Amino acid sequence: MTTELFIQYCFAGLTYGSIYAIVAIGFNIIYNTTGIINFAQGEFVMLGGMISISLLPFMPMPLAIASAVVLTMVIGALIEIVFIRWLKDPSVLRMIIITIGISILTREAASHVWGENIRALPYFIGNEITAISILGARISPQVLVVIGVCGLMVATLGVFFKTTSVGRQMRACSANRTAAVLCGINTRNMVTFSFILSAGIGALAGCIMSPITYSQYDIGTGLAIKGFTVAIIGGLGNAGSAVIAGLLLGLIEAFSVSVVPLAFQDAIAIAILLIILFVRPHGLFGSSEAAGLKEF
Amino acid sequence: MDLLQVDKLHKRFGGLQAVSDVSFGVRSGQIKAVIGPNGAGKTTLFNLISGALPSSSGRVLFKGQEIQGKKPHQVAQLGIARTYQNIKMFSGMTALENVMVGRHLQSRSGFVSSMFNLPGTRGEERLIREKSMELLGLLEIADVAHVSATSLAFGQQRAVEFARALAMEPEILLLDEPAAGLNMYETAEVGRLISRIRDLGITVLLVEHDMSLVMDISDEIVVLSFGQKIAENLPAAIQQDPEVIKIYLGEE
What we know:
The structure holds two protein chains of two kinds.
Chain A: H1 3-34, H2 41-55, H3 61-84, H4 92-114, E1 132-134, E2 137-139, H5 141-163, H6 165-175, H7 177-182, H8 187-213, H9 219-234, H10 239-256, H11 265-279, H12 288-293
Helix pairs in contact in A: 1-5, 1-6, 1-8, 1-9, 1-10, 2-3, 2-4, 2-8, 2-9, 3-8, 5-6, 5-8, 9-10, 9-11, 10-11
Chain B: E1 4-13, E2 16-26, E3 31-35, H1 42-50, E4 57-62, E5 65-66, H2 72-78, E6 80-83, H3 95-102, H4 111-115, H5 119-138, H6 154-167, E7 172-176, H7 184-199, E8 203-207, H8 211-217, E9 220-225, E10 228-233, H9 235-240, H10 242-249
Parallel strand pairs in B: 3-8, 3-9, 6-7, 7-8
Antiparallel strand pairs in B: 1-2, 1-4, 4-5, 9-10
């Protein structure tokens, strides 16, 4: 393998990897406050891309993206308020099935609104053939935008959870719900807020990846599976290791192209998911004691 | 007027009358203890006051306002803080961060400004941090502020819990067996801390099994047995009460 090809694969892997990481972080945020896996997480990514594309004729791109993110956050809040909030002590299984239902519902609604056409936002810098040279490899600037924005999102979330009052309250809810209530925290609002936050980061990822990966009404499912794989590899509820696991999966997929046919790319992710679930169900970086305390 | 008033409170679990017609008041500034044998209904009583359980009938009045039927986080927001018998720490957070969570009620900045870390909230964040540090100092655990809360010794975790409850600036603190699981030395420490909390002007209502602690620090004692109040008096009088001696030591 030449150096150029190696670098090319690396960037491809990092691009997809950072998207997977964002989807996995979305899973983790909701998992931490509710104990459920929100299988509609991929739909947030789809909605972000599709809404921004629809808004683009009416406004400049940054505004279209911002509006798409805000709208998706509103949808996230509505989903939680309509389908989850009023449930009294729901079982984990019931909530998961509800999220699968929401995912199907959203996808069908999207296919009616946008049809089955493949769309895309234009490239943020230059166009399809603009490329910059890094160590001889030719990289689209959009790739750097994706990696940069995802990195920024992860850093911002880190600061948010570490140094703000709301962030601390969310961590408190996931660490010990009873104690959070004792501190006067309305845990239901925190659950709604976690849906809003997950929807927001998913939607932003959906916008920035759109020029490279395209947007279509049904891209959510595939992303949800990849994101779920990453969340499991990293250990459920662990946002930091989701980043490492995401990049890892992205790189493995990218390099696998040089060994197996492209069609096998998804099979590789699912094979890894199965191996992890069999061998190390608490994830590569999670501790088994912590996993033992969790419901799911 | 009593700060907290329990009025003819009943709680029935199926056929079991866990709390039966219990009434008493807690005056502002005092330490009041609820004692009684296992299964007397002490923890149930606490759960009724703090909103963790709905009562079957009766009223709970805080500053003259009825609070029964409110949700636990609403009761907490009114100024009634409580601790559980089992220590409930936020794992993955330092002692200081645990206390800072308790402080959030005093934070005025909303979701949006907090998310974007605006300058106003940064100043507030500093205030929260300073006040929380001060409380850790008051409870003599400032030296472990940056240690993960769940790795602290039991007695220290108890102190972190007190600090977290105090961070809410409550008017009354409900302590459910604060000395449970502590050794003699730590129990004495906790007693000292509770007296210090009272000296801050915070009323304390506690459930406790450790008689030496209860007799030491309480201003008044309520005795429960099988869900009913059988005595309410000063500690010295409670120690002489034949009815109380009977339920603790059995009949002669």
